[in-house]
Design brief:
heterodimer; A: 325 residues; alpha/beta; 43% helix; B: 5-stranded parallel sheet; two-stranded antiparallel ribbon
């Protein structure tokens, strides 16, 4: 791993976000097993460096659309863990008022655009968001994510092509995590690397190690600079591995054990901590203190969220359809 | 804003004239009879479409729109020469033409009078008067009906090729579309699917530089449609679409690959739409100079000159071929005009599946 010019405090902040990402998801996993979560739960274990590294490379006003495995992106953008727990527990004062689950929410004040469950469809939306920003004369890039499976959808093609033709500052982060539900990548595309799709649209592209948060950050910075300077869209393929099932209910018996073990050795958090220790940015004790500091605050947030009420039945239809005054 | 962006990228209207390769690029030249056949079908297509677009349509005899392939005939003809036919269901190739590939219909065995009856909404047209123009197909001639939503026929063609794979035959699926359709999601899904499964499809793009009024520079940021092939892991080539020998050669190689289980190919043929998007469109948005430039590259005259150079025909023979075609079409038009319209009570038959 190489430091792309980040200060010690920035490196430690990135470390803290990866810890937070993992620890929030650990608690969500426990809540799921207790039957407290409404709906599905999609883990980003092993991919946290992608969410954190990309979101960290953006300015606060840049448009960001997380997908279901990008809880880390939301944490970097300032979404509180309590908000996330309320959302997953479907409580009345969660972002969707208990009407939707998982990360299916937005926060336009934080320049966060909500994910669309239908994979690929968010790409033309973000192309449109980037176009709107340009028409308003705003200097904002737009970043969103897609998995290896989502690259086979028509919307991926239409959104990326339009962004290329209009030279929009769209950054498409392709999280190649080896499997689209149970479909391995060799049944998904016939190219070696999804970065080969870049030249097919006439746009810049590169592949980075998605378990190296600093490499992800550096690649995203390059894409952001390109976008801001009028260089158009960038496709960044981040290679990592989905170390849990597609969702919490999936035991992923279709994934060879050896493959899983190989990727466990390339854990993004372990790798970053090793780097911080080797480069003398932190001691083991300091790194442990980060986790010990986060733990109690998350336990407190979970307790608080569990005490909040569900929405009353009469709220069911409110905010579902547009309401006129 | 947008105009400025394009200017700053230096991608104003561009032409393909400087980079198309000469006819000598063709390595496989068909025999004399095939050469004459290609010229005949290009001329027949041009003459038939001219009658439909410039006579019958203006006489108010056509029901619905008219979309012709004037200037693009070499692509359909050069490709159709490689379609295997006449050997039954487990032998014949299958074709998904675009709306500018009338030659494919003719060469697959649909007679001109049936096409004319189709355009006039008659009972004996391929859709029996229920749909118009190129919205037709006929599985007896291995022609998949054109899907009006551009791009939708690409996954269909890939699906046909999957059937061949499952049946273990060496049949090939031919799939035609324009450069505008390449921006469609279905196009992406179909090509990717064919690439992953290494299906025997030949993807044939007639890049005529305008999708209705949208110039190709507003359609894609890449120079060539074939630049997209690499993104799917399939071979791609861009060739002169106004040289029937070049088309014949390129398609021949792609068909051979497909038959031998080597997967799909994306072929782009550079050409020009020598008319409006359809008969009602005056193409006022196309710079006149482009029409003049491409008129000089007319595929039919080029083929004719080539055949004269090979001493396969002289001016007299050309004239004889043309009068034969005009005579055939006179008869075809007369036959079609004498055909009845469908009766109102049969409006719904053949629209939905009917159980025996």
């Amino acid at each position: 791993m190489r430091n792309p010019g980040l200060s010690r405090s920035q490196l430690l902040e990135i470390h803290r976000f990866i810890c937070l990402n993992r620890m929030v998801e650990d608690r969500l996993s426990a809540l799921y097993r207790q039957g407290q979560i409404h709906g599905g739960l999609y883990s980003s274990l092993g991919q946290e460096g992608i969410s954190v590294g990309t979101a960290y490379a953006l300015a606060p006003e840049d448009l960001l659309a997380a997908m279901i495995r990008n809880i880390g992106s939301l944490l970097v953008r300032g979404v509180a863990p309590l908000t996330l727990f309320l959302q997953f527990l479907a409580r009345g004062d969660s972002p969707t008022g208990g009407k939707d689950g998982t990360l299916h929410f937005d926060d336009l004040e934080k320049s966060l655009i909500g994910p669309i469950s239908v994979l690929g469809t968010l790409i033309p939306v973000m192309t449109g968001a980037a176009l709107a920003a340009r028409m308003r004369g705003e200097d904002r890039v737009a970043l969103t994510y897609i998995g290896d499976g989502g690259t086979s959808t028509g919307d991926f093609h239409e959104g990326l092509n339009l962004a290329a033709v209009l030279n929009l500052p769209l950054i498409l982060v392709v999280e190649n995590n080896g499997y689209a539900y149970s479909t391995p990548t060799h049944r998904q595309f016939a190219v070696e690397s999804l970065a080969e799709r870049g030249p097919a649209y006439g746009i810049a592209s590169e592949t980075v190690d998605g378990t190296d948060v600093l490499a992800v950050y550096a690649a995203t910075r390059r894409a952001v600079e390109r976008g801001r300077q009028g260089g158009g869209p960038t496709l960044v393929e981040c290679r990592a591995f989905r170390r849990r099932g597609h969702a919490e209910h999936d035991d992923m018996r279709y994934v060879p054990k050896a493959l899983l073990q190989a990727w466990e050795k390339r854990d993004p958090l372990d790798r970053l901590e090793e780097f911080l220790l080797d480069e003398g940015h932190a001691t083991k004790k300091e790194l442990r203190a980060v986790r010990e500091g986060i733990g109690p605050s998350l336990d407190e947030a979970v307790r608080t969220a569990l005490e909040r009420p569900y929405p009353p039945p009469e709220e069911t239809l409110r905010d579902v359809y547009h309401e006129t005054e | 804003m947008l105009a400025r962006d394009r200017k700053s990228q230096g991608v104003g209207p561009r032409t393909v004239s400087s980079s198309v390769r000469p006819a000598t690029d063709a390595t496989r030249v068909p025999d004399d009879a095939s050469l004459l056949k290609m010229l005949y079908y290009m001329k027949l297509t041009r003459a038939l479409e001219t009658r439909i677009e410039r006579k019958l349509y203006r006489q108010g005899k056509i029901v619905g729109g008219v979309y012709v392939g004037r200037g693009q005939e070499a692509i359909s003809v050069g490709a159709a020469m490689h379609m295997r036919r006449g050997g039954g269901e487990d032998h014949d190739d299958i074709v998904s033409p675009s709306h500018r590939d009338m030659a494919v219909f003719l060469m697959q065995g649909v007679p001109p009078e049936k096409i004319l009856a189709q355009y006039m909404g008659r009972k004996t047209g391929l859709t029996r008067g229920r749909d118009g123009n190129m919205h037709m197909g006929d599985l007896r001639h291995r022609l998949i009906a054109f899907v009006s939503h551009l791009g939708d026929s690409i996954p269909v063609a890939a699906g046909c090729a999957l059937t061949f794979r499952m049946h273990g035959t060496d049949q090939v699926s031919f799939c035609f579309f324009g450069e505008g359709a390449t921006s469609r999601g279905d196009w992406h899904e179909g090509l990717n699917f064919a690439a992953v499964l290494q299906l025997p499809v030949v993807f044939i793009c007639n890049n005529n530089q305008y999708a209705y009024s949208t110039h190709v520079s507003r359609q894609m940021k890449v120079e060539r449609v074939s630049d997209r092939a690499r993104g799917y892991g399939m071979p791609g080539e861009s060739k002169d679409g106004n040289d029937v020998l070049v088309v014949y050669d390129a398609i021949g190689r792609a068909v051979e690959r497909a038959r031998h289980g080597e997967g799909p190919t994306l072929l782009e043929f550079l050409t020009f739409r020598m008319t409006g998007h359809s008969a009602h469109d005056d193409a006022g948005y196309v710079p006149k100079v482009l029409f003049a430039e491409w008129e000089r590259k007319d595929p039919i005259r080029r083929c004719e000159d080539d055949l004269k150079g090979r001493r396969l025909l002289d001016a007299g023979a050309v004239q004889a071929m043309e009068s034969r075609i005009e005579g055939e079409l006179d008869e075809a038009v007369a036959w079609a005009e004498a055909q009845p319209y469908p009766s109102p009570e049969e409006c719904l038959t053949g629209v939905y599946h009917e159980q025996a």
